[in-house]
């Protein structure tokens, strides 16, 4: 507001002074000019009448000569007033129109409207800095779960695209440089309902500045950052950034896990999938044989490190080894798009190929050339831009890695179901047979679609009936929640994945576990199981039914009669 007032007064200072001066001289002259009354006697005009006459004369309205007919001197003075004030009015109006068209003024007004919209938010929201591919995927995923979002991006065309998106919720957007703390404050960084900040620009230094500003101005909220440099990651972690996601390390770990424990990867994909998606089939990357890795940049180095740790034979193809460096094992110089380079990399005996350069056209060319030389290759492709998704689907790669989607997917899971992120971390320490058994159990519950995953907190808001039962000394078991409130002998199509109590975590807890106040539970199953479980959690009669088979008396008289009967 201060900047808008400053711009108005700076640009309109001269026109306003000219307008005031012109009216003052016109009024004073009209008062001093000799006039006459209705009887023809000399009389001067009052300041009020003079101001009134100048006002309708200067604005070209023209009401006539009042309060009395003018003398020749007064009419002569009004001729001067007409031309002088009209010129000043045109000058003032022209300056005002130019001000309204000024980019700086329009920018200030846009920021003011945006800040007012953010301040009027009455539900918790997340601030997404960067509405590129990662930010766009995350915003759509969050709004689909009815979570409010505010977006800021440095490019105006991206914010215009946001306004055209058919999102479930209205998302306030601002084209601004998030490196300036002022814009972060306008976007709601200090708003009491700001639940977290996600720095997802494609510039590491910008994400770092956003994280620093957030921790300094609002240290209590959650900060999530994207980074593809280990140095930047270390810097972010040094001042307490809550979550740092490197898409290259995430995918490299995913690929290594898929080689050693394919069921564990399948379990994670099923649990973190979007509602309505079909269950994915398991993928079995070859654990033995030669892997050809095209591209030894940041992504290639991350994949190479994890594959070598798994004992996989890897041969690197790199076009600019002087820039990226070379691995300790065998490597070939070239882009990999030429048959000659792939033949030098022994593609005929290779079992898998990873096209991991930062150019989608080269990656597609590498895959097509390699498939002509060895049709049986297991192919992993790096997709740098979502616009090329259809091309990568057509090329037939078994695994397609998109950095933006990976980061957005992880953040969506973290914000929507935090316990699921913890479950994934603990599940990685289990045997693959454990994951295969759990996958089989989940497949028996759902109908070819990804299961719904939800959290339950034993408190007065999320589980009122269970909370009250615990206060009365009648604890609820986990098995009670998995009973159907319509038929207690039937079991809901759901699985309890984890129980969180204080700092302890228990995977696949037994149904006999008694629930305590403050417990957090993670379930998966179909959507019907979730809605029916809510009856047991919130309705005292439903809880009593699954526990005892009857319904507890509700009124005072019925409770007294029930006590007499017992």
Summarize the structure in words:
By secondary structure, this protein is α/β, with parallel strands linked by helices. It folds into 4 domains: 2-101, Helix Hairpins (Orthogonal Bundle), CATH 1.10.287.70; 117-245, 3-Layer(aba) Sandwich (Rossmann fold), CATH 3.40.50; 249-416, 3-Layer(aba) Sandwich (Rossmann fold), CATH 3.40.50.720; 451-565, 2-Layer Sandwich (Alpha-Beta Plaits), CATH 3.30.70.1450. It has 24 helices and 20 strands. The strands form 5 sheets. The protein has a 6-stranded parallel sheet, with helices on both faces. Strands 11-10-9-12-13-14 form a 6-stranded parallel sheet, sandwiched between helices. Strands 15-20-18-19 form a 4-stranded antiparallel sheet. Strand 1 (35-36) and strand 2 (42-43) form a beta hairpin. Helix 10 (247-260) packs parallel to helix 12. The longest helix has 31 residues, at 2-32. The radius of gyration is 36 Å and the shape is flat. The termini are far apart. The model has no long low-confidence stretch (mean pLDDT 89).
Short description:
The chain is an alpha/beta fold and 566 residues long.
Radius of gyration: 36 Å
The CATH topology of the largest domain turns out to be Rossmann fold
What is the rounded distance between the termini?
Answer: 71 Å
Shape: flat
Helix and strand composition category: alpha/beta
What's the level 1 CATH class of the largest domain? Answer: Alpha Beta
Helix content: 40-55%
Beta-strand residue percentage: 15-25%
